[in-house]
Amino acid sequence: PSEPLMASPHAGGAPPGVDPEAFSWFQAVDADHSGYISVKELKQALVNSNWSTFNDETCLLMINMFDKTRSGRIDVYGFSALLRFIQQWRNLFQQYDRDQSGSISFNELQQAFSQMGYNLSPQFSQLLLARYAQRSSNPSIQLDRFIQICMQLQSVTDAFREKDTALVGNVRLSYEDFLTMVVTRMM
């Protein structure tokens, strides 16, 4: 009598608590079938509306966010959570992309910041566009950079609020306090 075939994790259904669609995506993205997704594999799987792949920094930020073991890669559960996270950002991005161009222009970025509760000058938005947009006569931001900017803004804002206990909008920092904020939040 022949032995029953064991179902491999790649042949069967999704593990408990993982959306079947996320599971099949995970299998497709896990190019080396290691059971984990690296920054490189994630980068090859995610694209902006102009079909450019997501940038390294955004992929690394997201992997680190969902990497519970600090191994630099995520398992199927982390990937499932990451897909939900990206979908939420995509929905927000589409809300702010008023002209449905697939990217966020200067005016749309200003409106997005304002609606998110950030009181930032047009000069600051211009600086972000200069830093993160593709060089063109009408610079705009793709989804990957939008996620990166918003995650970093949130992180730095949290660090600032820890010091601005009176919520006055100003803090006094020593140079080392400033460096500590940057290193612990951004690197």
UniProtKB/TrEMBL annotation:
Organism from which the protein derives: Todus mexicanus
Protein topology in the membrane: Peripheral membrane protein
GO-annotated biological processes: COPII vesicle coating
Annotated localization: Cytoplasmic vesicle, COPII-coated vesicle membrane; Endoplasmic reticulum
GO CC terms, sorted: endoplasmic reticulum; ER to Golgi transport vesicle membrane
Principal location: membrane
Keyword field: Calcium, Cytoplasm, Cytoplasmic vesicle, Endoplasmic reticulum, Membrane, Metal-binding, Repeat
Gene name of this polypeptide: Pef1
Domain of life: Eukaryota
Name assigned to this protein: Peflin
